[in-house]
């Protein structure tokens, strides 16, 4: 397989899995195993930014309404809660990253994160279903969503979207679509900041491996286009369906990783 084709496939896979609660990290691990090449962290983070750009495009009207409607109390309150969630992620996540507190992106921890995360999703959604389907984003929800994003960063395979969406459901935002929208909007500054930080680290590292910018650009575009389709589909899907099929898929994928891929990979 050519390098450009491999980059294209990885970009498509990232776009499809970044927002579905199935762990893009686990899927990229499998893909890179079969491709036979481990991509640098910069590649993975920047193509995540392509997927986040897709979210920006999907929610462009919502973002514009928030930006131009800050005089309205509801918009101002919502924007401040987005800022708090992002601020918590940055304030807690940056020291965690600098301290190197992160499990390795190898089969065993990712597989177990997929399995345990799937079980957590089923239990969390059932508990949330017993509560009123509130669309309200509280300050508690904002703080917990910020912390959930940090946890997802420490434990590869957890899925940032899954961790944050289900903590929001349990914390009081009982309507799936409202919790999902808030988490996706928080993800925009979060992932753009992570990508910018990774790029800065790469540029300042004199010993960093050279980057194939053509491959990175192709994967970025692929992730953006497929991410746009995936987000639009998911937002429609969750209006009438639960997240349970994704939970089952995570568990099956986690077991498959443990059984078929080398432990040390």
Question: Any overview of this molecule?
Answer:
One of its GO terms (molecular function) is undecaprenyl-diphosphatase activity. Its EC number is 3.6.1.27. By secondary structure, this protein is mainly alpha-helical. 77% of the residues lie in helices and 0% in strands. Helix 1 packs antiparallel against helix 2 and helix 5 runs parallel beside helix 7. The longest helix has 29 residues. The mean pLDDT is 86.
Oligomer: single chain
Q: In sequence order, what are the helices and strands, one letter per element? A: HHHHHHHHHHH
> Any low-confidence stretches, pLDDT <50, length ≥5?
none
Relative helix content: over 70%
Overall mean pLDDT score? 86
**Main sheet makeup:** none
Overall geometric form: globular
How many helices? The count is 11
Task: Compile the SSE list and pairings.
Blueprint lengths: L2 H15 L6 H12 L5 H18 L1 H9 L4 H27 L7 H23 L9 H16 L5 H12 L4 H29 L8 H25 L6 H17 L5
In short:
The chain is mainly alpha-helical and 265 residues long. Catalyzes the dephosphorylation of undecaprenyl diphosphate (UPP). Confers resistance to bacitracin.
Keywords:
265 residues, 11 helices, mainly alpha, undecaprenyl-diphosphatase activity, cell wall biogenesis/degradation, single chain
């Amino acid at each position: 397989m050519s390098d450009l084709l491999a980059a294209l496939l990885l970009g498509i896979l990232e776009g499809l899995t970044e927002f579905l609660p199935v762990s893009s990290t686990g899927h990229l691990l499998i893909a890179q195993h079969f491709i036979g090449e481990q991509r640098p962290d910069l590649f993975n983070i920047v193509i995540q930014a392509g997927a986040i750009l897709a979210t920006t495009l999907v929610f462009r009207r919502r973002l514009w309404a928030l930006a131009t409607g800050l005089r309205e109390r509801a918009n101002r309150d919502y924007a401040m809660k987005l800022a708090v969630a992002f601020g918590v992620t940055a304030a807690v996540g940056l020291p965690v990253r600098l301290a190197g507190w992160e499990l390795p992106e190898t089969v065993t921890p990712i597989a177990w994160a997929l399995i345990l995360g799937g079980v957590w999703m089923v239990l969390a959604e059932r508990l949330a279903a017993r509560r009123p389907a509130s669309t309200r984003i509280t300050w508690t929800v904002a703080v917990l969503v910020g912390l959930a994003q940090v946890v997802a960063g420490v434990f590869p395979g957890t899925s940032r979207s899954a961790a944050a969406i289900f903590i929001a459901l349990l914390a009081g935002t009982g309507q799936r679509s409202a919790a999902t929208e808030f988490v996706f909007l928080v993800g925009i500054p979060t992932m753009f900041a992570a990508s910018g930080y990774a790029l800065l680290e790469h540029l300042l590292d004199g010993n960093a491996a050279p980057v194939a910018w053509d491959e990175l650009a192709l994967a970025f575009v692929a992730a953006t286009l497929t991410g746009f389709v995936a987000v639009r589909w998911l937002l429609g899907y969750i209006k009438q369906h639960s997240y349970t099929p994704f939970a089952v898929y995570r568990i099956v994928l986690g077991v498959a990783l443990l059984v078929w891929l080398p432990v040390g990979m």
